[in-house]
Amino acid sequence: MTGTASRGGDLRNYALVTGAYWADTVTDGAIRILVLFYFYEAGYSPFAVASLFLFYEVFGIVTNLVGGFLAARFGLKSTLVAGLATQTIALAMLAFVPDGWLVVPYVMAAQALSGIAKDLTKMSSKSAVKLVVPQGEPDALFRWVAVLTGSKNALKGVGFFVGGLLLTVVGFQPALMILIGLTVTAMVVVLAMMRGALGTPNRAAKFAQMFSNNRAVNLLAAARVFLFASRDVWFVVGLPVFLRVELDWSFWQVGAFLAVWVIGYGAVQAAAPGMLRRRAGGEPSGRAAAVLAFALAVFPAGISLALATTLDPTVVVVAGLIAFGVAFALNSAVHSFLILHHADGDRVAMNVGFYYMANAGGRLAGTVLSGALYQWRGLEACLWASVALVLAAGALSLLLPRGRPVATA
Known about the structure:
This protein has helices at residues 2-41, 46-51, 54-74, 76-95, 104-132, 138-169, 172-193, 215-235, 238-246, 251-280, 286-296, 298-307, 313-342, 348-377, 379-397. By secondary structure, it is an all-alpha fold. It has one domain (2-196, 209-397): MFS general substrate transporter like domains (Growth Hormone, Chain: A), CATH 1.20.1250.20. It starts with a helix and ends in a 12-residue tail after the last helix.
C-alpha cells in the first residue's frame, strides 16, 4: 500500500508541476507578443525589438546551471515556486510603472527575469518526469516527455494569441495585470496542494557537480546548442522581418502565423512517439537523433534554393517553414527523451539543468546571428547558416550510443 500511495502522490505532484508549467508557458508567450507589438508600434526597428530579448536568453544559460544545483539541494518544488514568483515580479515591473520607464534597458531587465522564470519552471517540470515514470520503461518515458514538451509548445502558441487579444481588448499594462493573476494563482495552488519537496533534496550536492561527466549527456548538450541555433538563426529575426518587409505582411499576420506554427509544432512533438515508433519499432536511439538532424538540413537548404527561382516566395517560405517545423519537432522530441533517459538517476535535475543551459546557449547564438546575418545578406544567409549548424548537430549525434537506450539505475 505504501508503494501505491507514494506512486499516487508522485502523480499528483507531477500534475501540479505540469499545470504550473503550462500557466507559466502561456504567460511567457503572451508577454513576448505584448512586448514585441508594443515596442514595434512605438517606432522601434525590428532589430531593436529583438535586442529586448537578448537578456532573456543570456540569463536562461545562468538559470539552468544554477537552477539545477538548487533543485538538487532543495527539491524541485522550491525551483518551481521560485520560477512562478520571478515571473510575477517580471510582469509587475512592466505593469505598474509610468510609460516613461518603458525604455530598452529597463525592459531588457524585466525580460531577463522572465527568462529566469521560464527556465526554472521548465527545468522543474521536465526533471519531474524522471521521478514518476518507473525505471526500466523507456517507452513510457518517451511518451510522457513528448506530451509535456508538445503541450508546452502548443500552449506557448496559445500565449501568442492571448497576448495579441489582450493587447487589442484591454491594452498593454492591463494585459500584464491579468497575466499576474494567472501566475499568482498557479503559485498559490502549488504551495497549497503539493506534498513534499518533489524529489529527494541532497544538501551535500556541490555546484561543481553541475558540469556533467556523463559522456552521453555532454554530447547531447553540445548537439542541442547547434540544433536550436539552427532554428533561431532564421526564425527569431530573419523570418519575421522577411515576412513584414519583403512579403508586406502586416505585423498581426506575422504574429498570428508564428503562433499557429508553434501550436502545430507542439502537436507534432506530442505525437512523436507514435510516429517514430512505427518507423523504428521502438524508442529512439542516438542513431535516430543523427538521422533526423541530417534530414532536417534539407529544408533550410531547399527554401534558400527555391527563393532564388521564380517560385512564389510566400508559398516557398510558408511550405518550407511547415516542413521544417515537422522535422525540427521530431528532432527536439528525440533529444528531450534521450537527455532524461541518459541522465543519472540521482542527479537528474543537475543533468537536465546542464542540458537546458546548452539549449539556452544555442538560442542566444541563433538570436544574435539571425539579426547580424539578415542585415548582412538577408534571409538566404540565415538559411545557409541553419544548414551548417544542423549538420554540426547531426555530426555530434553520430557519437551518441548507437543502440537503443537501456534502462539506467
